[in-house]
Amino acid sequence: MVDTIKKIVLAYSGGLDTSVILPWLKDHYAGCRIIAFAAELGQGDELAGIRKKAIASGADQCVVRDLREEFARDYCFPMLRAGAVYEHHYLLGTAIARPLIAKHQVEVAHQEGADAVAHGATGKGNDQVRFELTYMALDPDLKIVAPWKDERFQLRSREAAIAYAKEKGVPVSQTVKKIYSRDRNLWHISHEGADLEDPANEPKDDLWVMSVPVSKAPGKAELVNVDFDAGAPVAINGHRLAAHTIIERLNAIGGRHAVGQSDLVENRLVGMKSRGAYETPGGTILLTAIRSLESICLERDLLHCKQQLALKYAELVYYGQWFHPLREALDAFMASAAQRVTGRVKLRLFKGRVTVASVHSPQSLYQKNLASFTMGGEYDGKDAIGFIRLFGLPMKAHAMANRRRL
Q1: Which of 76, 147, 193, 320 sits most deeply, having the most CB atoms within 10 A of its CB?
Q2: C-alpha separations of 255 from 17, 31, 71, 222, 245 in Å
Q3: Rounded to whole angstroms, how far apart are CA atoms 215 and 203?
Q4: Cα–Cα distance measured from residue 70 to residue 187, given in angstroms and rounded to the nearest whole number
Q5: How far is residue 30's CA from residue 175's CA, in Å, rounded to a whole number?
Q6: Ordered domains of the chain (ranges, CATH)
């Protein structure tokens, strides 16, 4: 297969893994042209000089695309609308980005006439699955190059990768002493490795990047208003903004109050448990807000069904099955359910917490006269008598049968 590959499009971030893979590909795929593809997803200054670095590291060409608005509008916000959270705490920042990167990687392969795509994910993690499932879903004819799973690839640790980068003259920000594996985009930043590999170690204050430690958050709360239209965030404090700008603004607001920090041991798709720390300040604010709005806008059975399906939706995202027909079908349900989720939520941010101060919607199903403890003509308490008898009949019958056996 190696001899038949003429052009490879590599998902390139400029981080440690992909930095060492570029020269490795040039050494082991002789005569093959390597195109580095970098996606601007809100990494801050991480893409500064990315083209120059890619070419210096062995790439024949470097393609950079700004995908921030598409990422926010077509990936983050549908996931938010679904209420997808993996294992109670992970807001899926890395998982939701991989299908988008791989999608554009396939597009670049088509445009440039490449016959293969490559990624720098290891054979232990989830990202290998997310990249490769997307390749398979969008173009099953493309060959997949995954160096970490190639027996010729002998860089089996981050320490070895750092040494290899030094040998090849490839600049990387990681050192043996500063060796966290981080992935950042508009939605979050993840931290793994080093002292975090032992769940007994508390995350250090200097770990956090997008947010301050709770101990350094302001002693005064901040209020922020978020407007939604049919389940999609559209404005902050009355100002309508583009989707990616909404996330950026809320990241800044939430970050200064230490909102959105989570530390968890999760179950990877490949079967092992791994420990990571995540920062998702804007996403945490938005999730708290939309759940509050749904509480007054969605009918009970619809809300409960949506909550159950959110678990499956989260699994599909985590497992890299974004382009699975089930995820697409679930999105149709979520879009329909969210038609009434329109309104404004006021949130209070304080010392790592985000709480709802008020919620209002023109589509609200909440009726004060019905909910009030004052009994009015619109609700006859005697109606509950027959209802409770019928509703409790199975339990009553069970109790009577058990009593007879005593």
Answers
A1: 76
A2: 28, 47, 20, 12, 15
A3: 13
A4: 12
A5: 30
A6: 2-181 (3.40.50.620), 183-360 (3.90.1260.10), 368-405 (no CATH)
Q: Tell which residue, 132, 149, 179, 129, has the closest CA to residue 15.
A: 179
Q: Environment class of residue 365 by beta-carbon count within 10 Å: exposed (0-12), middle (13-18) or buried (19+)?
A: middle
Please give the single-letter amino acid code of residue 91: L
| Residue length of the chain | 406
Residues carrying an active site annotation: 17, 98, 127, 181
Rounded to whole angstroms, the Cα distance separating 391 from 80 reads 35
Residue 359 in tokens: 């919620």
State residue 1's pLDDT score: 46
* pLDDT tens digits, one per residue of 203-251: 999 999 999 999 999 999 999 999 999 999 999 999 999 999 999 999 9
Angle at the Cα of 309 from the Cα atoms of 304 and 311, rounded to 5 degrees: 110
Number of neighbouring beta carbons within 10 Å of residue 87: 13
